[in-house]
Amino acid sequence: MNVDLFDFELPAERIALRPAAPRDSARLLLLDGDRTEDRGVRDLPALLRAGDLLVFNDTRVIPAQLEGRRGEANIGATLHKREGPRHWIAFIRNAKRLRTGETIDFGNGVTAIAEARHDDGSFTLFFPGDEPVELLLERAGRMPLPPYIAAKRQTDARDADDYQTMFANEPGAVAAPTAALHFTPELMAAFDAAGIGHTTLTLHVGAGTFLPVKADDTTDHKMHAEWGRIDAATADRLNTVRANGGRVIAVGTTSLRLIESASGEDGIVRPFDGDTAIFITPGYRFRGIDGLITNFHLPRSTLFMLVSALMGLDRMQAAYAHAIENDYRFYSYGDASLLLP
Question: Quick one: which H or E segment has residue 305?
Protein backbone atom coordinates (compact mmCIF):
# COMPACT_ATOMS: atom_id res chain seq x y z
CA MET A 1 0.00 0.00 0.00
CA ASN A 2 1.08 3.56 -0.65
CA VAL A 3 2.47 5.03 2.57
CA ASP A 4 0.87 8.40 1.74
CA LEU A 5 -2.51 6.83 2.59
CA PHE A 6 -1.45 6.80 6.26
CA ASP A 7 -0.51 10.47 6.44
CA PHE A 8 -2.38 13.17 8.35
CA GLU A 9 -1.68 16.67 9.65
CA LEU A 10 -1.03 16.92 13.39
CA PRO A 11 -0.65 20.34 15.02
CA ALA A 12 2.51 20.46 17.13
CA GLU A 13 0.55 21.55 20.21
CA ARG A 14 -1.29 18.20 20.22
CA ILE A 15 1.96 16.36 21.16
CA ALA A 16 1.97 15.70 24.91
CA LEU A 17 5.23 16.55 26.68
CA ARG A 18 4.10 15.25 30.09
CA PRO A 19 1.63 12.50 31.04
CA ALA A 20 -1.75 13.14 32.58
CA ALA A 21 -1.70 13.38 36.38
CA PRO A 22 -2.92 11.17 37.87
CA ARG A 23 -2.21 8.68 35.12
CA ASP A 24 -5.74 7.29 34.86
CA SER A 25 -7.24 10.77 34.39
CA ALA A 26 -6.27 10.67 30.69
CA ARG A 27 -9.00 10.86 28.07
CA LEU A 28 -10.11 7.81 26.09
CA LEU A 29 -11.59 7.68 22.60
CA LEU A 30 -13.89 4.68 22.25
CA LEU A 31 -14.27 3.08 18.83
CA ASP A 32 -16.70 0.18 19.24
CA GLY A 33 -17.74 -1.05 15.82
CA ASP A 34 -19.30 2.03 14.21
CA ARG A 35 -19.75 3.84 17.55
CA THR A 36 -17.42 6.71 18.54
CA GLU A 37 -17.54 8.18 22.05
CA ASP A 38 -15.40 10.57 24.07
CA ARG A 39 -14.72 8.86 27.39
CA GLY A 40 -11.99 8.62 30.03
CA VAL A 41 -9.51 5.91 30.95
CA ARG A 42 -11.37 5.43 34.24
CA ASP A 43 -14.42 4.33 32.19
CA LEU A 44 -12.59 1.23 30.92
CA PRO A 45 -14.01 -1.21 33.51
CA ALA A 46 -17.53 -0.26 32.36
CA LEU A 47 -16.62 -0.44 28.67
CA LEU A 48 -15.30 -4.00 28.85
CA ARG A 49 -17.10 -7.18 29.94
CA ALA A 50 -16.70 -9.65 32.77
CA GLY A 51 -14.58 -12.50 31.46
CA ASP A 52 -12.41 -10.25 29.25
CA LEU A 53 -8.64 -10.37 29.73
CA LEU A 54 -6.24 -7.43 29.53
CA VAL A 55 -2.71 -8.31 28.38
CA PHE A 56 0.10 -6.01 29.51
CA ASN A 57 3.76 -5.85 28.50
CA ASP A 58 5.96 -6.11 31.61
CA THR A 59 9.16 -4.88 29.94
CA ARG A 60 11.17 -2.26 31.82
CA VAL A 61 12.85 0.69 30.10
CA ILE A 62 16.60 0.92 30.63
CA PRO A 63 18.69 4.13 30.44
CA ALA A 64 19.74 3.32 26.90
CA GLN A 65 20.66 6.82 25.66
CA LEU A 66 24.41 7.42 25.81
CA GLU A 67 26.57 10.44 24.97
CA GLY A 68 30.29 9.97 24.47
CA ARG A 69 33.42 10.79 22.55
CA ARG A 70 35.68 9.02 20.09
CA GLY A 71 38.79 11.16 20.05
CA GLU A 72 37.59 14.68 19.26
CA ALA A 73 34.23 13.54 17.85
CA ASN A 74 30.98 13.59 19.82
CA ILE A 75 29.16 10.28 19.42
CA GLY A 76 25.59 9.56 20.52
CA ALA A 77 24.31 6.00 20.90
CA THR A 78 20.79 4.71 21.39
CA LEU A 79 20.81 1.02 22.25
CA HIS A 80 17.89 -0.79 20.65
CA LYS A 81 18.45 -4.57 20.70
CA ARG A 82 20.48 -6.81 22.94
CA GLU A 83 22.62 -9.39 21.16
CA GLY A 84 24.30 -10.99 24.17
CA PRO A 85 25.45 -10.31 27.75
CA ARG A 86 27.81 -7.53 26.64
CA HIS A 87 26.67 -6.79 23.08
CA TRP A 88 23.99 -4.33 21.94
CA ILE A 89 22.97 -3.06 18.53
CA ALA A 90 22.77 0.74 18.63
CA PHE A 91 21.73 3.61 16.40
CA ILE A 92 24.66 6.02 16.26
CA ARG A 93 24.55 9.78 15.93
CA ASN A 94 27.55 11.18 14.01
CA ALA A 95 28.22 7.66 12.70
CA LYS A 96 30.44 8.99 9.92
CA ARG A 97 33.06 9.74 12.60
CA LEU A 98 33.06 6.17 13.93
CA ARG A 99 34.86 3.19 12.42
CA THR A 100 34.81 -0.49 13.25
CA GLY A 101 37.24 -1.31 16.06
CA GLU A 102 37.23 2.15 17.60
CA THR A 103 36.31 2.81 21.24
CA ILE A 104 33.69 5.27 22.46
CA ASP A 105 34.18 6.78 25.93
CA PHE A 106 30.80 7.45 27.54
CA GLY A 107 32.29 8.79 30.79
CA ASN A 108 31.99 7.47 34.34
CA GLY A 109 34.29 4.58 33.45
CA VAL A 110 31.98 3.29 30.71
CA THR A 111 33.35 2.48 27.25
CA ALA A 112 32.18 0.50 24.25
CA ILE A 113 33.94 -0.87 21.18
CA ALA A 114 32.29 -0.51 17.77
CA GLU A 115 32.58 -4.13 16.67
CA ALA A 116 30.53 -4.10 13.46
CA ARG A 117 28.63 -1.70 11.22
CA HIS A 118 25.32 -2.87 9.72
CA ASP A 119 23.63 -2.06 6.43
CA ASP A 120 21.14 0.29 8.09
CA GLY A 121 23.95 2.34 9.64
CA SER A 122 23.62 0.90 13.14
CA PHE A 123 26.57 -0.62 15.01
CA THR A 124 27.09 -3.60 17.27
CA LEU A 125 28.69 -2.25 20.45
CA PHE A 126 30.71 -4.39 22.87
CA PHE A 127 30.93 -3.19 26.49
CA PRO A 128 34.20 -4.54 27.97
CA GLY A 129 34.70 -5.30 31.66
CA ASP A 130 33.17 -7.45 34.35
CA GLU A 131 30.33 -5.23 35.58
CA PRO A 132 26.90 -6.10 34.19
CA VAL A 133 25.99 -3.78 31.33
CA GLU A 134 22.83 -2.80 33.24
CA LEU A 135 25.00 -1.23 35.96
CA LEU A 136 27.11 0.58 33.36
CA LEU A 137 23.97 2.06 31.83
CA GLU A 138 22.66 3.17 35.21
CA ARG A 139 25.92 5.06 35.63
CA ALA A 140 26.31 6.62 32.20
CA GLY A 141 22.97 6.42 30.42
CA ARG A 142 19.74 8.37 30.53
CA MET A 143 16.11 7.59 29.86
CA PRO A 144 15.58 7.39 26.08
CA LEU A 145 12.58 9.67 25.61
CA PRO A 146 10.99 9.55 22.14
CA PRO A 147 12.54 12.04 19.68
CA TYR A 148 9.33 14.08 19.40
CA ILE A 149 9.56 14.82 23.14
CA ALA A 150 13.35 14.99 23.43
CA ALA A 151 13.44 17.61 20.67
CA LYS A 152 11.26 19.94 22.77
CA ARG A 153 12.63 19.51 26.29
CA GLN A 154 15.39 17.86 28.30
CA THR A 155 14.93 14.52 30.01
CA ASP A 156 14.61 15.10 33.75
CA ALA A 157 14.16 13.23 37.02
CA ARG A 158 10.38 12.98 36.57
CA ASP A 159 10.81 10.88 33.43
CA ALA A 160 12.52 8.10 35.36
CA ASP A 161 9.10 7.36 36.89
CA ASP A 162 6.76 8.81 34.27
CA TYR A 163 8.21 6.66 31.48
CA GLN A 164 7.82 3.34 33.34
CA THR A 165 4.54 1.46 33.60
CA MET A 166 3.30 -0.02 36.88
CA PHE A 167 3.95 -3.47 35.34
CA ALA A 168 7.63 -2.80 34.47
CA ASN A 169 9.59 -5.80 35.71
CA GLU A 170 11.85 -7.22 33.00
CA PRO A 171 14.69 -4.81 32.05
CA GLY A 172 15.48 -4.54 28.37
CA ALA A 173 13.27 -2.01 26.57
CA VAL A 174 14.49 1.26 25.13
CA ALA A 175 10.95 2.58 24.72
CA ALA A 176 7.99 2.19 27.05
CA PRO A 177 4.83 0.24 26.15
CA THR A 178 3.02 3.53 26.56
CA ALA A 179 -0.62 2.43 26.54
CA ALA A 180 0.00 0.89 29.95
CA LEU A 181 1.25 4.20 31.37
CA HIS A 182 -2.43 5.07 32.02
CA PHE A 183 -3.00 2.25 34.52
CA THR A 184 -2.92 2.64 38.29
CA PRO A 185 -3.47 0.28 41.24
CA GLU A 186 -6.88 1.89 41.77
CA LEU A 187 -7.90 1.23 38.17
CA MET A 188 -6.66 -2.36 38.38
CA ALA A 189 -8.79 -2.88 41.50
CA ALA A 190 -11.81 -1.66 39.52
CA PHE A 191 -11.09 -4.24 36.80
CA ASP A 192 -10.88 -6.98 39.44
CA ALA A 193 -14.23 -5.91 40.88
CA ALA A 194 -15.78 -6.00 37.39
CA GLY A 195 -14.53 -9.53 36.72
CA ILE A 196 -12.02 -8.39 34.11
CA GLY A 197 -8.73 -10.27 34.37
CA HIS A 198 -5.19 -9.34 33.43
CA THR A 199 -1.92 -11.04 32.63
CA THR A 200 1.52 -10.09 31.29
CA LEU A 201 3.96 -11.02 28.55
CA THR A 202 7.37 -9.53 27.71
CA LEU A 203 8.40 -7.70 24.55
CA HIS A 204 11.54 -5.56 24.78
CA VAL A 205 10.55 -2.54 22.72
CA GLY A 206 13.33 -1.24 20.48
CA ALA A 207 14.07 2.28 19.28
CA GLY A 208 13.06 1.11 15.81
CA THR A 209 9.47 1.74 16.88
CA PHE A 210 10.13 5.47 16.33
CA LEU A 211 11.76 5.16 12.91
CA PRO A 212 9.77 6.73 10.11
CA VAL A 213 8.68 4.64 7.16
CA LYS A 214 10.92 5.96 4.40
CA ALA A 215 9.69 3.63 1.68
CA ASP A 216 6.94 4.78 -0.69
CA ASP A 217 5.15 1.43 -0.39
CA THR A 218 4.58 -0.66 2.74
CA THR A 219 5.94 -3.77 0.98
CA ASP A 220 9.38 -2.14 0.87
CA HIS A 221 9.60 -1.32 4.59
CA LYS A 222 11.82 -3.50 6.80
CA MET A 223 10.83 -3.81 10.46
CA HIS A 224 13.48 -4.04 13.18
CA ALA A 225 13.29 -7.26 15.19
CA GLU A 226 12.43 -7.21 18.90
CA TRP A 227 12.76 -10.02 21.43
CA GLY A 228 9.66 -11.32 23.21
CA ARG A 229 8.39 -14.15 25.37
CA ILE A 230 4.99 -15.69 26.15
CA ASP A 231 5.27 -18.60 28.57
CA ALA A 232 3.10 -21.70 28.43
CA ALA A 233 0.88 -20.66 31.35
CA THR A 234 0.11 -17.29 29.75
CA ALA A 235 -0.59 -18.87 26.35
CA ASP A 236 -2.98 -21.33 28.00
CA ARG A 237 -4.78 -18.51 29.80
CA LEU A 238 -5.27 -16.52 26.60
CA ASN A 239 -6.70 -19.56 24.85
CA THR A 240 -8.96 -20.44 27.77
CA VAL A 241 -10.44 -16.93 27.95
CA ARG A 242 -11.46 -17.02 24.30
CA ALA A 243 -12.73 -20.59 24.52
CA ASN A 244 -15.01 -19.43 27.36
CA GLY A 245 -16.40 -16.52 25.33
CA GLY A 246 -14.19 -13.78 26.76
CA ARG A 247 -12.15 -11.31 24.74
CA VAL A 248 -8.39 -10.85 24.73
CA ILE A 249 -7.70 -7.10 24.86
CA ALA A 250 -4.08 -6.19 24.14
CA VAL A 251 -2.86 -3.18 26.10
CA GLY A 252 -0.52 -1.57 23.61
CA THR A 253 0.65 -2.44 20.14
CA THR A 254 3.65 -4.29 21.61
CA SER A 255 1.40 -6.79 23.40
CA LEU A 256 -0.71 -7.14 20.26
CA ARG A 257 2.27 -7.76 17.97
CA LEU A 258 3.68 -10.47 20.24
CA ILE A 259 0.33 -12.25 20.63
CA GLU A 260 -0.15 -12.21 16.87
CA SER A 261 3.39 -13.50 16.39
CA ALA A 262 2.60 -16.42 18.70
CA SER A 263 -0.81 -17.20 17.18
CA GLY A 264 -1.40 -19.84 14.54
CA GLU A 265 -3.88 -19.76 11.69
CA ASP A 266 -6.23 -21.65 14.02
CA GLY A 267 -6.25 -18.73 16.46
CA ILE A 268 -4.41 -20.72 19.13
CA VAL A 269 -1.66 -18.84 20.99
CA ARG A 270 1.43 -20.95 21.57
CA PRO A 271 4.43 -20.32 23.83
CA PHE A 272 6.92 -17.96 22.19
CA ASP A 273 10.55 -17.11 22.95
CA GLY A 274 12.53 -15.24 20.32
CA ASP A 275 12.55 -12.34 17.88
CA THR A 276 9.57 -10.94 16.05
CA ALA A 277 9.56 -8.47 13.17
CA ILE A 278 5.84 -8.78 12.39
CA PHE A 279 4.54 -5.87 10.27
CA ILE A 280 0.76 -5.51 10.37
CA THR A 281 -0.96 -3.51 7.61
CA PRO A 282 -4.53 -3.40 6.25
CA GLY A 283 -5.55 -6.79 4.91
CA TYR A 284 -4.00 -8.64 7.85
CA ARG A 285 -6.32 -11.17 9.53
CA PHE A 286 -6.04 -10.89 13.31
CA ARG A 287 -5.85 -14.27 15.02
CA GLY A 288 -5.09 -13.88 18.71
CA ILE A 289 -6.69 -10.62 19.92
CA ASP A 290 -10.19 -9.15 20.03
CA GLY A 291 -9.45 -5.54 20.89
CA LEU A 292 -6.71 -3.02 21.62
CA ILE A 293 -6.04 -0.20 24.06
CA THR A 294 -3.48 2.14 22.56
CA ASN A 295 -2.33 5.76 22.39
CA PHE A 296 -2.47 7.98 19.31
CA HIS A 297 0.33 7.32 16.84
CA LEU A 298 2.52 9.21 14.39
CA PRO A 299 1.42 9.83 10.80
CA ARG A 300 2.94 7.42 8.27
CA SER A 301 4.06 5.14 11.11
CA THR A 302 3.89 1.35 11.30
CA LEU A 303 1.68 1.75 14.39
CA PHE A 304 -0.91 3.86 12.59
CA MET A 305 -0.85 1.19 9.88
CA LEU A 306 -1.50 -1.45 12.56
CA VAL A 307 -4.56 0.30 14.02
CA SER A 308 -5.82 0.90 10.48
CA ALA A 309 -5.52 -2.84 9.86
CA LEU A 310 -7.61 -3.49 12.97
CA MET A 311 -10.36 -0.90 12.45
CA GLY A 312 -10.11 0.14 8.79
CA LEU A 313 -8.10 3.00 7.30
CA ASP A 314 -11.07 5.31 6.67
CA ARG A 315 -12.35 4.68 10.20
CA MET A 316 -9.00 5.55 11.76
CA GLN A 317 -8.43 8.64 9.61
CA ALA A 318 -11.86 9.90 10.72
CA ALA A 319 -11.15 8.99 14.36
CA TYR A 320 -7.82 10.81 14.35
CA ALA A 321 -9.43 13.88 12.74
CA HIS A 322 -12.01 13.78 15.57
CA ALA A 323 -9.24 13.46 18.18
CA ILE A 324 -7.31 16.41 16.75
CA GLU A 325 -10.44 18.58 16.53
CA ASN A 326 -11.37 17.72 20.13
CA ASP A 327 -7.94 18.42 21.62
CA TYR A 328 -6.83 14.88 22.45
CA ARG A 329 -3.17 14.61 23.43
CA PHE A 330 -0.99 12.51 21.11
CA TYR A 331 1.92 10.07 21.30
CA SER A 332 3.74 8.45 24.22
CA TYR A 333 2.54 10.75 27.03
CA GLY A 334 -0.83 11.39 25.39
CA ASP A 335 -4.38 10.10 25.70
CA ALA A 336 -5.68 6.62 24.88
CA SER A 337 -8.14 4.84 22.64
CA LEU A 338 -10.11 1.60 23.01
CA LEU A 339 -10.46 -0.12 19.64
CA LEU A 340 -13.09 -2.86 19.39
CA PRO A 341 -13.56 -3.99 15.76
Answer: helix 302-311
